[in-house]
Amino acid sequence: MSLLTPYSKVPELNTATVLLVENEEELQSKLADAIVQCEKEFNVNVRLARKLPLPVENKKTRPRIDLIVFIINLLSERSLQSAESSLSHLHSDCFLGKVCFLVTDARCGSHTQERMVSVRKLAASHQCPVLCAEHRTADGVNAAAVRILNILKVSAGMSPIATTALYLSSLTRCSVTSDLEDD
Amino acid sequence: MDAQARSVLYRIFRRIPNRNIENLLRRWNCLSADQLRALDYTRPKWMIVEHVISFCEESRLSLKHITNLEMIYHIETPDQGIWHACQLTEAQDDAVCVELTQFKEQFKAHLHGVIRHISIKMKKHEDEAIWIRIAWGDNFNKPNHLKPTYVVHHLHTSYVFISNLMAKHKIFLFQALVIATKHGSIKDGHLSTKSLTAMRDLLLRRYQQVFPNAHSRILQERNSLPSHPCIGKEHREHEERRHQMACEVFGHGPTPKLETAVYRLETRYRGNSNYTLSEKEEFLRGVVKFSSSSLLESLRHCVTSGMAEGPVTPLLSAITQRGRNYFVITDKGPGVSSQASAQRA
Question: What pLDDT digit, counting tens, does each position of A73-123 carry?
Fold first, then answer.
C-alpha cells in the first residue's frame, strides 16, 4: 500500500503545495481559488482530491506536498468516514505538523455536535489542529484561505522566524478536554 | 351559439393569461380587425370573454370555429394535461409509403364507421406533427366537446402521443391508428409526462446524444471553466470518465424535462438472512418513485458527482435507452442476481 510521504521529494524554490481532500468536492474548488488569489509573496500550488490514496499515475508530476487539509462537512456522515479512511493512507511522518482538519457547518443542527466531538477526538489522537470555517459566504471562504495559508507557510518552512511545523502543531493541536466528553 | 360552444370558450379562456389572448385571437383569424381592436385587454377576464362571445354571435360563429380555437391553443401550449406515449409495432411493407391524405381518410373513415356520433379534427403543424382532436359521442348522444382527446403523431415514426383518453374509447382509437398507419399492432409505451415537448424530445431523440467511442476526450471542451494553472486535480481522469459515462446515458446539454420515474417492485426480499421474511415465498411489493423538476438532469448530476456509482445501472439507463418511465421489476428466479438490491442508486 503506497503511503503519502512528506519528505520523499525535493522542495521547489519559493513554492508551497497544499492538498485539499474533500469527499463532496464542493468547498475545495472555492477554497483553491481563494488561496491562489490571496497569496502574492510566494507560489502556491493547490491539489484537489476526493480521497486518499492518490492515483499512482500522478506520482511523477505531483510536487512535494507541504500541507494536507481534510475538509469535513459535519452535515454528512459519509464525509467524516471518508476522511477517517483516508488517514490510514498517510505516512506517520505526515502527522508531525503537516496535516490539519477543516470542518464546515459546525453550528447547524444536533448531529453536527456529535460529529464535531468525534472530529476533535480524531484530531487530538493524531496531534493535528482543527479549523472551523463558514463556507457559504465569500468572506468565510477567504478567511479560511488566509488561515490555511498561515499554517502552510510554516509547514513549508517559509516562516522567517525559526518556527517549524512540528513546533506549530504542538501549539495548535486539538485537545479533547474532559468536560467536552460529558456533553 | 349554443351552451356547449359557450362552455368550451369559457374553458379555453379560463386558463390563458390576459396578455396571450390577443395573439391567440389574431391567429384564430375569425374575428374582424375592428372587433379585435375593440377588445380591451386590461379589463377583467370575464368581461373580455363576454365581449368575445358577443362578437362571435355577431359573426355567427359556430361550435366548429370554437373547437378550432381550442385546437390552436393546444398546439401553441402543448405542455398541459398528462400525455401518454404508445408505440406502433409490426409495420407492414407499405407503412413507409403512407402519406398524409391517405392517413386522414382512413382514420376518419374507420372511426365514423364504428361510432355514429363523433367529431374529428386534424391539423398538420409545421414541424411535421399531425394533431388530432376527437370529441366522442356514442350511438345515442352527440359528441362531448368538453372532454376531447388529443392525439399527436409524427408520420413514419412509430410513436403516438395521447392525452385525455377514456378507457372505453381506447380500443376504437387504437384500431383506427393501426389501420391508418398500416401497422400490425399498438402497445402502451409506459411513458407518461406532463410535458409533450419532453416526451417528444426523448422518444424522437431530439436531445444531444453522446455515443461511446475510443477517444473519450470529446467532452474536454466542457472544461471551459478557466482554472488557475496552479490548481491541479488529482482525480481529473476519474472525473472525466464519470462525466463521459453520465453523458452517454443522459445526453449532453439540456435534457428532456421528465418529472418522474416509477419502479414497481415485485421481488422477494433479499437481505440479511436473520430476517424471517426471506424464507417466505411471498413477494415484497413496493413502489419506488423518483421525482424532480428535471429528472434526467438530476440523475446525470448524481453520476458526474460520484453519488451514484458508475457504470450507470441499467435500471436508470433504461429511462433514456428505452424511452420509458414506468418499470415493473420482477424476480426471474433464484439464479438471476437480484435487481431489487441494485436499487441503491
Answer: 988 888 899 999 998 888 888 888 889 999 998 888 778 888 888 898 888
State the Cα–Cα distance between residues B319 and B105, nearest whole angstrom.
35
Q: What is the largest CA-CA distance in chain A?
A: 48
The beta-carbon neighbor of B234 closest among A36, A44, A58 is A58
Would you call A68 an interface residue with chain B, using a CB distance cutoff of 8 Å? no
Count CB-CB contacts under 10 A for residue B315: 17
Distance CA A36, CA A46 (A): 8
Per-residue model confidence (pLDDT) at position A64: 87
Q: Which residue shows C-alpha cell 376527437?
A: B134
Q: Which residues are paired to A70 by β-bridges? A: A21, A101
Q: Judge if pTM exceeds 0.90.
A: no
In this complex, do A45 and B232 lie within 8 Å of one another by their Cβ atoms?
yes
For chain A, strand residue ranges (E) read 15-22, 43-49, 67-73, 99-104, 130-133
Report the C-alpha gap between B99 and B208 in whole angstroms: 29
Neighbours of B98 (CB within 10 A): 18
Rounded-to-integer distance, Cα A35 and Cα A27, Å: 12
DSSP-derived secondary structure for B217-240: TGGGGGTTS---TTEEETTHHHHH
Question: B-contacting residues of A 120-149, CB under 8 Å?
Answer: none
Q: How far is CA B85 from CA A27, B154, B156, B186, B190, in A?
A: 43, 12, 15, 11, 7
Concatenated DSSP letters of B269-300: --S-TTSGGGGS---EEEEEEEE-SSHHHHHH
Instruction: Give B65-111 pLDDT, tens digit per residue.
Output: 888 888 988 988 888 889 999 999 988 888 888 888 999 999 999 99
- Whether the bond between B311 and the residue before it is cis, its omega within 30 degrees of 0, is yes
Phi, psi of B257 (to 5 degrees): -85, 80
> In the structure grid, which three cell numbers stand for residue B121, read together?
379534427
Give the total residue count for chain A.
183
| Cα–Cα distance, B193 to B51 (Å, whole number) | 36
